[in-house]
Amino acid sequence: MLFQTTKKQEDLRKKVREFAESEVKPIAFLLDKENEFPSEAIAKFADMGMMGLPYPKEYGGAGADVLSYAIAVEELSRVDGGTGVILSAHVSLGSYPIFAFGNEEQKQKYLTPLAKGEKLGAFGLTEPNAGSDAGGTETTAVLEGDHYILNGGKIFITNAPVADTYVVFASTNPDAGTHGISAFIVEKGWEGFTFGDHYDKMGIRSSSTAELIFNNVKVPKENLLGKEGQGFKIAMATLDGGRIGIAAQALGIAQGAYEHALEYAKERIQFGKPIAQQQAISFKLADMATKLRCARFLVYSAAELKEAHEPYGMESAMAKQYTSDICLEVVNDALQIFGGSGYLKGMEVERAYRDAKICTIYEGTNEIQRVVIASHIIGKMKK
Ligand code: CAA
């Protein structure tokens, strides 16, 4: 597909870039150092109407397209990968399942405040024994009268404990495998719903990540999302879209590191000329630019397919896998161009190097992305 962004999309990029440069970049070093969530910046971003970009205005969203949302994640991540994933997890994982599978009442009650940015969303799928094998969910939900009783826990949950609303997956019929998993909307503050410690991560340290603990949590029956047993498909469909967000995050992290390296290479003089004029460095920059361009096509075209309601699961897996793989290569080359000074704390490229790695791991490891891509092109492998 030939690709051309619209003026509206580029105007949005400019707006988010200005915000990222003025509100996030100056504090990014401290957020990383202190493992601190950018509450004020996210509140300002919400005031700009950015937390529900792809959702209809009738539900408090901005009524923009999927690509505009991807561009917003890219631009935040260009200055800080952690801030980028806060938006991605909120829009793609915390809000999308309610938008796509919720009934009208659930959309009014939960999607609207999420899309307006009054509340923050999160997604609880991963467990100690259900990581790549998401169907191995051990958290249970047992129907008792008007409530499901939720027991178990989730690990590595982005936006926890800051988020207000959690889409949580639990088994309502442990004998039925993936067909026994159901999805629920769970609110922070409900009795028995607590959090583990905020993880001390290698990168994306401005984003908050914690464990969810459910101890006999009473979830009203009306908070079942979709039908009983539909949860695994809801999770998989949600992740198809979520992977566009992570691909956009990886694109932004790589773009930021590339720009820093390019600028530095033009200024840094060695052997009597800027290192950008030395072939060893100019070839690196050429490869970085080429990889970024390929990745951008993949990410934007996956977003366009989703927007057009065409199948996009394979394309989003390709975008996520390729972009996060080249993100690692690009930040590695960027740091190499900086040499010893890139290895120092406080250098953006050092933070980007640490932020980049997670993109090959979460929302499905890149090995799982290849499973997804292969199952689209070959058919599902026999178990
Ligand atoms: N959309 C809708 N339905 C889907 C689907 C999709 N994309 N993919 C699979 N399904 C359906 C299948 O059609 C199948 O349905 P039937 O049984 O009715 O035929 C059912 O789901 C089971 O499918 P599989 O047999 O293919 O499932 P599996 O157990 O082999 O698992 C998998 C497939 C792709 C490996 C899946 O487990 C997976 O995606 N794992 C990775 C999990 C993951 O990405 N976790 C990320 C957590 S969130 C996170 O990381 C967020 C963050 O921090 C920012």
UniProtKB/TrEMBL annotation:
Keyword Flavoprotein: yes
GO molecular-function terms, A-Z: acyl-CoA dehydrogenase activity; flavin adenine dinucleotide binding; iron ion binding
Superkingdom of origin organism: Bacteria
Coiled-coil segments on the chain, per record: none
Cofactor: FAD
Alphabetic keyword roster: Electron transport, FAD, Flavoprotein, Iron, Metal-binding, Oxidoreductase, Transport
Keyword match Transferase: no
Annotated family: Belongs to the acyl-CoA dehydrogenase family. Belongs to the ETF alpha-subunit/FixB family.
Name of the protein in question: Alkylation response protein AidB-like acyl-CoA dehydrogenase
Annotated organism of origin: Longicatena caecimuris
Residues represented out of the complete protein: 1 to 383 of 633
